From TrEMBL:
The chain crosses the membrane at residues 54-72, 84-106, 112-131, 143-162, 174-192. This is Uncharacterized protein. It comes from Niastella vici. Keywords: Membrane, Transmembrane, Transmembrane helix. The keyword Transmembrane helix applies.
Length: 222
């Protein structure tokens, strides 16, 4: 029988790492690395990007989802067997595609919204086997990433319009993306902490705590 005390400790460690990992990835990879890679090398751009600008933006998204998937999987290894880069290919394909779809059809801030929704949909599908109520999980997962996007858009772009728009170059981009990614990170980290606390399947959850009743042979009963 799985040691219940050990599993409770493992779940606490998982939830702690989920929070710190998401805060680090969203603030670090999206808030800092994205503007540095996307804008630091090729400068400011209009709605129509040059080819180098498009390439660097896409590369920055690859870097972001790489760290996101790696961090998620390293955290999930606490409660089960999971390869470090398991399931990365849908993120590498669909997340940049969703970002550019939003950007070139509806423009900012729909690039951010579509990017977060793509992450939510992929996680909703890929992590279904790890939760107790898969149908509910799909709704919860997509809903949380939608809320994260809305929080980031309103706070980040609001701060841009009020405080950052006159800042020079890369300083403006860094301030804006940190203001987008930080509230989004808080939503993802703490909403999923609450959800996964009750939803996550731990090893031994399907084991019965009761000892099966032993039937006596008929010869002993007679």
């Amino acid at each position: 029988m799985v040691n219940r005390k050990y599993m409770e400790s493992a779940k606490k460690l998982f939830l702690k790492n989920w929070v710190t990992g998401n805060l680090a990835v969203y603030c670090g990879a999206l808030g800092l690395l994205h503007p540095l890679i996307a804008h630091g090398f090729t400068g400011d751009h209009d709605k129509l990007l040059t080819t180098p600008q498009f390439i660097m933006h896409t590369l920055s998204l690859f870097v972001f989802v790489f760290f996101l998937v790696r961090t998620q999987n390293k955290t999930l290894q606490i409660v089960g067997n999971r390869k470090t880069l398991a399931g990365i290919w849908p993120f590498l394909f669909f997340t940049p595609w969703a970002f550019w779809l939003g950007y070139y059809t509806l423009f900012v801030p729909f690039d951010i919204l579509f990017m977060f929704l793509s992450i939510g949909i992929i996680n909703a599908i890929q992590l279904k086997p790890l939760v107790k109520f898969p149908t509910k999980w799909v709704r919860q997962c997509i809903g949380v990433y939608f809320l994260a996007a809305i929080a980031g858009i309103f706070i980040g772009l609001g701060a841009f319009l009020l405080f950052y728009k006159n800042l020079p170059g890369i300083a403006r981009d860094l301030a804006t993306w940190l203001s987008i990614s930080s509230p989004a990170a808080l939503v993802v980290a703490y909403c999923f902490k609450k959800i996964l606390k009750s939803q996550l399947i731990m090893p031994g959850d399907n084991e019965s705590d009761s000892v099966p009743e032993q039937k006596l042979p008929l010869s002993k009963v007679a």
